[in-house]
Queue: 2 jobs
Job 1
Amino acid sequence: MATAILKRGEGRRFKAGGLWIYDNEIDSVTGEYENGDIVEVCDFNGYFLGRGFFNSHSKIRIRILTRSADEPIDAAFFRARLMRAWNYRKRTVDTGSCRLLFSEADGFPGLVVDKFGDILVVQSLALGIDRFKGMILNLLIEILEKDGVLIRGIYERSDAKVRLKEGMPLHKGFLSAPFETKIQIEENGIKYIVDIENGQKTGFFLDQKYNRRAVGQLCRGLEVLDCFTHTGSFALNAAAGGARRVLGIDASELAIAQARENARLNGFEEIAEFERADVFEYLPALEQAGKQFDLIVLDPPAFTKSSASVKNASRGYREINSRAMRLVREGGFLATCSCSHFMTYELFTKVLALAANDAHKRLRQVEFRTQSPDHPILWAAEESYYLKFYIFEVTAW
């Protein structure tokens, strides 16, 4: 096994509990290796620090698997971690549809597995873990079936561009016998058609499960605007919660078509309507028309995927939140979030305060929430904490 030696004084985040070692922190690598191999990591003085996947194509040069010198990386190693991940989900979430593996937060760097009923959707984003993917999936299915959970099929959605940074081609397709890739799931008592082949990421955003429910509980008798509705999940939770009217908007025609289908599936087509529109253009038009709503949801895609674009992203979040606050009726509600790891809690909170000042509105916090427990936040691994979700009552100054 090759050994990576850190530079003197480097690896501070890793030594504090982090799971990544960057290219500029490594002094040298001794021994023979190929990209994707497991290497040992030692400090500048030879002190053993851990083992992980090495990849010279990536700025994240080493993804740590273990800090133990005596722990072999084999089937038993992965089985134990899979058992821990599955037992954790059974204790914390509805496992009908949930994230079974959340990358580093579950000890599987770069690997995501979502469960939609009896279908698994896999996303493999790191070269090292990709080599173990088949074995991990076989072990996972074995563990689930021993617990009476039968899996009908597996589909891979390893088509995220981040794979290119790992020197890996994009790929998607069946890892089992083919099956219909539009499948029906139920979450919070609401039915959805999930397109695992063509939908965003793995097909459905499971991380907002309980945030959607929290919004729905506020909606009885209200008129609701759901911005960036995607396939209508917040809108349909609002309708299920007793909203008198719901309008969902999204820039994607495909998403809007799916949202309408989901509304029909649940019998909400008379309550929830959907329009294709750019939120940044639509909100000013609503304001100019003097339109207002009792509750507005802002669930935008990540405006920033790197630290370099945080400043521009902050302006975007500030603008849509300020406009939404002006569109909320006195004493109404705003549910707003950011799903970018780089938009930190502190920065997002500051941006919302600035937006409220711009809109001459006062915010009274109802709730602060984050991603659902099947997307666990691992302390010291900052990248695992990405979703910040506020619900506010909005009043005039």
Job 2
Amino acid sequence: MRALNPACKFLGLLAVTFVLAWRFNPVLNLAVFAVAVVLILTNGVRVRTLAAWMVPIALLAIGMFFTGYRFSADASMPVIAADFLVSDSRIWNGLAQASRVLAYAGVGFLFTLTTDRIYLIQSFRQQFHLPPVFAYGLLAAWGIVPQMLLEYKRTRLAFAARGLKVMPFSPKLLRPLLVKSIRWSEELAIAMESKGFDGSAPRSCYAPVKVHAKDLVFLLACVVLLPVLAAVFA
């Protein structure tokens, strides 16, 4: 997954989300979630990292299950899916709601945890023709984020050294960070203009991002194969 073209991966996974929105089937949702988890773990993501990301998603899925269970249209109607009889449609409705949360989260995490952000912007710039202004702006913003985190830690240590206790999102911490972020953005904009970065001028690509056969295979599997399987085994 990490070696796939980010633009093709984005289109493929976006097609998967449309299929999930079209089908109201917990079996399909859980199958997509299971495949996403397997792909995430086989691409170098630690189990502990994925588990930490899944904690709020699991809580949301539990809440959606009880919401679907409580507010079902017809609680007495049995449901048959994949030759399995569910005697209470409230359970089926709750499973559908909860599994949809898991499926969407799995697809989102699959894209987020297996995609390099620099490679993503380069791919969008070359395959989707993203305007250079937005591409340079995103790259510059992501470059400032580590400096912002470091400055946040320094500010907290400065308050701790003076014996002052502040909340994690206290205005006393965020106000100086906001001022310095504006200053960094202005300095970065001036530096880019002085080095000849112009959004309207034609530019060549230092690192071309190409679309390979495996990218097209993945895209076709998500756009064509998955909808067909979802319709056949519904």
